[in-house]
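WARN no homologs supplied; continuing
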Amino acid sequence: MVLVYIASQVPGLLLVLNKKNVFCSPATNGDIKFFERGGNIYRVAINYKDNRGYAYFNESTGKIEFSPKSPLGFFERLLGIYFLWGYWLLNERVHTYRFGWNKLCDKDKIIPTSATLVEQRVLEGKILASRKEDVSVMRFVWIYPIYADKIEIQGNFKISILFNVTIEIVKPLEIISLLKGDWYFPLSDEIVGRVTDYVRDIDIDDFRALDKTDDGCDFVKKVKNHIYLDGRVKITNVAYVGFDYNDNPPEVIAAFMERERLEKIQAAKLLETQTIQKQKLEAATSQIEVEKKIAESQEIINAKELKTARMKADAEAYEIEQKARALMVNPSSAVIERARLLSEGMKEHKGTLVLGNTVGTFGMNEGEGNSASEITTSPPPPRESRRR
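OK structure emitted
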């Protein structure tokens, strides 16, 4: 029973030790960890995979590179933990360092008391919390806010710009050994400096009209296409959030707000005009489609009627052909058929009608002519011979 109880407590004990980095440490996806023995880092471990493959630390180049094979051991992959086998004997530990960064937080939520709050008016209800803490992991890929506060553009006009950057760690061991892990604020200062240089020579109208969202625009390229911290990190994406102009004199702000109001009215009118034009175009297109469908339906009806007429004509032609064949096979029936035709088709004809060798005489009134049964056949009178 005692052994069973001890065995049942092992998973919970491992969980506690794992969280405290004692004997083992979680191999969380996307984290870089530094393992040390006697205060010296001997291993840089990373658990990360994307379309490039498995990330691993190349000791010869000092960079994070990619391979089709995972760098983790079998039990590390199976259990999702790193083992510190020499925790007591070799003094193995997970390296910790001091890291500072900014984070956008909701104003109405609890923010750590250790954080320094930085007001920003670009996003309503948000505040920048500047923090510094002892950490034991380094995020391989992470999104961080960059806030360029009160930078000056043409006309002594001041603006504050907020955008997010996606950072990818390139040389993690150099960041720890040379920068002591504190890389975010130096990087932020470099980025803000580049943005300040870029917007210094443009006015507020040019800045507002400037494309700042497309990946290929000048603003994004100015921020993204640069070697930061001697290539120890790189920016993979820039997402512009917005800007604020409330640090200018009141009269400047009032004039700017009035201009914004007029621009919004013009934009609304333009949108209304475009909407009406779109509706008209859709209505015209719909009418064309209706007429097209009507024409297609009429074509189908005409085709059906033509097919029916052809079938009827074919049937009548077939019937005539069958009658003609019957008359050719039985000559006596031909005489009867002629009589029927004379009786039905020439009832109001007065005179003599010759059908082949058959002669019939008819009158206008009853009794003046012969009935069909009284028709006699006689050779027609001889024609007078003509001399040439």
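The chain has four domains: 1-95, 97-248, 249-329, 330-374.
OK
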